[in-house]
């Protein structure tokens, strides 16, 4: 059965080191954290000698030999296969990989880590086969996706508190809307804001002054200014976007997209589709 960050953390804290881990999902920062957590639990934090990594295109014979070789300095070692492109691999290569995943090794923990390779684990039949092979021998797959806005808000408020500052949930939500949903970017921005606030309260005005605005947020604000008839404000934001070297086509696309979405919703309603169906289409 697939795990998430929390269930994996509990499992590792209870001393359960499994033979195979398949790490997938759309959040690169959190996936890296998950992999490091597994490595630390299996071999310790600074044991580079027992950490072996292979990249996409590696010779499976070398991978097989490494998985089956013993460590002379520890009970276990970690063997990592990074970003193997399962969607483009040949049938015989997939069969070999499934064999490697579906085998328990005397002293090796096998980690398949997918970061740059993009696919949907719910739709990819090859990834499903790999996950199934891992789980069949007592391994697991770990699905690490972007956190929800509520989860991000709680984390940002807690992170600010750790650094001696107060941040209200509404301000944390505003930072997410203004800046990004990427946790790595948000943590960098919180550090900057805490340094600026100097042990005080982080306010919305500080976010406007200090935080780096995402292109999407800037264009969204441009749309608001246009709709409100604020020509001067819209021109100022447009000037900022041009200064950021954002292509005019990108700006038009971002402004037009919500109107296209509204047209799609209106058409769906006209055809009698249920709101739940429409919501599923828009995720």
Concise structural overview:
The chain has 283 residues and is an alpha/beta fold. It has helices at 5-13, 28-43, 60-68, 91-101, 125-136, 149-162, 169-178, 183-197, 204-210, 215-227, 231-243, 248-270, 275-282; strands spanning 20-24, 51-55, 77-82, 108-113, 140-143, 166-167, 201-202.
Main traits of this protein?
283 residues, 5-stranded parallel β-sheet, two-stranded parallel sheet
Topology of helices and strands:
Layout: H1 5-13, E1 20-24, H2 28-43, E2 51-55, H3 60-68, E3 77-82, H4 91-101, E4 108-113, H5 125-136, E5 140-143, H6 149-162, E6 166-167, H7 169-178, H8 183-197, E7 201-202, H9 204-210, H10 215-227, H11 231-243, H12 248-270, H13 275-282
Parallel strand pairs: 1-4, 1-5, 2-3, 3-4, 6-7
Helix pairs in contact: 1-2, 4-5, 6-7, 6-8, 10-11
Helix content: 55-70%
- C-alpha termini separation: 24 Å
> Can you summarize the main beta sheet?
5 strands, parallel
Q: Over all CA atoms, what is the radius of gyration? A: 24 Å
Task: Tell me, briefly, the overall form.
Answer: globular
Class per helix and strand makeup: alpha/beta
Total helical elements: 13
The main sheet orders its strands as: 2-3-4-1-5
Q: Compute the number of strand runs.
A: 7
Query: What are the low-pLDDT stretches, counting only 5+ consecutive residues below 50?
Result: none
Please indicate the percent range of residues in DSSP E strands (runs of 2 or more).
5-15%
Instruction: List SSEs in N-to-C order.
Output: HEHEHEHEHEHEHHEHHHHH
Mean pLDDT: 88
């Amino acid at each position: 059965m697939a795990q998430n960050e929390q269930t994996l953390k509990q499992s590792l804290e209870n001393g359960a080191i499994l033979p195979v881990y398949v790490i997938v999902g759309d959040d690169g920062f959190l996936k890296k954290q998950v992999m490091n957590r597994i490595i630390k639990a299996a071999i310790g934090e600074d044991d580079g000698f027992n950490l072996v990594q292979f990249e996409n295109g590696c010779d499976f014979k070398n991978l097989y030999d490494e998985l089956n070789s013993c460590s002379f300095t520890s009970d276990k070692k970690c063997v990592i296969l990074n970003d193997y492109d399962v969607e483009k691999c040949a049938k015989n290569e997939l069969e070999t990989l499934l064999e490697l995943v579906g085998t328990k090794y005397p002293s090796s923990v096998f980690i398949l880590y997918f970061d740059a390779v993009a696919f949907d684990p719910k739709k990819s039949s090859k990834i499903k086969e790999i996950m199934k092979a891992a789980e069949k021998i007592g391994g697991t797959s770990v699905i690490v996706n972007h956190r929800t806005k509520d989860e991000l808000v709680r984390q940002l408020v807690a992170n600010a508190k750790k650094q001696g500052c107060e941040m209200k949930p509404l301000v944390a939500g505003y930072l997410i809307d203004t800046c990004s949903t990427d946790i790595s970017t948000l943590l960098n921005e919180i550090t900057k804001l805490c340094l600026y606030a100097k042990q005080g309260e982080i306010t919305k005005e500080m976010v406007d002054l200090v935080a780096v605005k995402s292109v999407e947020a800037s264009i969204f604000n441009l749309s608001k200014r246009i709709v409100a008839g604020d020509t001067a404000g819209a021109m100022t934001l447009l000037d900022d976007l041009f200064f950021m070297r954002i292509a005019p086509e990108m700006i038009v696309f971002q402004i037009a997209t919500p109107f296209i979405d509204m047209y799609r919703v209106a058409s769906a309603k006209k055809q009698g589709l249920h709101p739940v169906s429409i919501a599923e289409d828009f995720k």
